[in-house]
Amino acid sequence: MRALVVRGLGIYGIEEVPKPKPNRDEVLVQVGVAGFCRTDLKIIRHGHRDLVLPCIPGEEVVGTVVEMGEEVNNLRIGDRVYIYPGISCKNCKNCNKGAENLCEKMRIMGFHRPGGFAEYVTSPASSVIRIPEQLDFETAVFLEPLSCCLNALELGALKEGESVGIWGGGPAGILLKRATSAMGAYPTVIEPDPKRRAFLGGLEDPKGQIFDLCIVAVGSPIAYKEAISHLAPRGRLVVFSGLLPKEETLLVDFNLIHYLEQTIVGAYGCSHRHALYALQLLINGRVEVKDLITHRLPLDHLETALDIVEHRRGIKVLIYPNIQR
Ligand SMILES: [Zn+2]
């Protein structure tokens, strides 16, 4: 099968590799659509903390079950599925806290095991979620990014009626905005790029506003500084976006955190339960996603996809590994 293989920092290409065989408890999924995100850009062009090389990236995957291991009895050939990308041990301290995304033995599809930028991918049957008939692949492929947003809102302890400042109007920022609204709170997205503001319904200016919850969904130290300055007393700041290695040191005024009783909390990835919640939000239409798709590309157009994401020329880029150019 054809797959995108990353062999080292900046060393990658489309290769012919053996089609994987599912283990006893696994399914083989023919990839329908794989979402492309900034994490993939990092993995492919810049490297990533969690990456095990060589690797086939792609952690936002939906597709069709085409083969099953002999122990799989909860699925059928032909089922349309979303693959929750994490495999956790369900037994360590972090798993027991409900933070399986921080599992000590976490194995993420597209990082530690082959992902969806390929014609086929295997997954434990326990990680896949059947997609109901009314949901098409292009909507369902947003389950992963939406799940990560729901994890961030959970960790930010969002309550109905609160105000939320979201820095960054990319795919994650927009999904955070829509999920915030769906949960009965009031989002404001701060995005300097006029092209991106179009998706947000106009200009939003944080001047003079303070927020109960601030979420930074753009890898920018300036955004973090700004977000902290707009945090209400008892406000929570969610560190949602990572920073490039050179930018990792940020000065924070701990006296302000102290006097204003504020909280800073990290959010990274998502747990299986977030996918079930995300699925409900997509099924009942409380979060709409399809208008965010700006590019649909075959795997061979990888460089184009990388450029679009690197230079923020689109919102959501989708890859179709089983469609030839
Ligand atoms: Zn664990």
What topology does this entry show?
Elements: E1 2-8, E2 11-16, E3 26-36, H1 38-46, E4 60-68, E5 80-83, E6 86-87, H2 93-96, E7 107-108, E8 120-124, E9 128-130, H3 137-140, H4 143-155, E10 163-167, H5 171-182, E11 186-190, H6 194-200, E12 211-216, H7 221-229, E13 231-239, H8 254-259, E14 263-266, H9 272-283, E15 293-298, H10 302-310, E16 316-320
Parallel strand pairs: 10-11, 10-12, 12-13, 13-14, 15-16
Antiparallel strand pairs: 1-2, 3-4, 3-8, 3-16, 4-5, 5-9, 6-7
Helix pairs in contact: 4-5, 4-9
Please give a structural write-up.
This protein is α/β, with parallel strands linked by helices and 325 residues long. It folds into 2 domains: 2-142 and 289-320, Quinone Oxidoreductase, Chain A, domain 1, CATH 3.90.180; 148-266, Rossmann fold, CATH 3.40.50.720. Helices cover 26% and strands 27% of the residues. The chain is built from 10 helices and 16 strands. The protein has helices at residues 38-46, 93-96, 137-140, 143-155, 171-182, 194-200, 221-229, 254-259, 272-283, 302-310; strands spanning 2-8, 11-16, 26-36, 60-68, 80-83, 86-87, 107-108, 120-124, 128-130, 163-167, 186-190, 211-216, 231-239, 263-266, 293-298, 316-320. The strands form 4 sheets. Strands 3, 4, 5, 8, 9, 15 and 16 form a 7-stranded mixed sheet that branches. Strand 1 and strand 2 form a beta hairpin. The chain is globular, with a radius of gyration of 19 Å. The two termini are 15 Å apart. The model has no long low-confidence stretch (mean pLDDT 92). Zinc ion (ZN) binds at residues 88-89, 91-92, 94-95, 103-105.
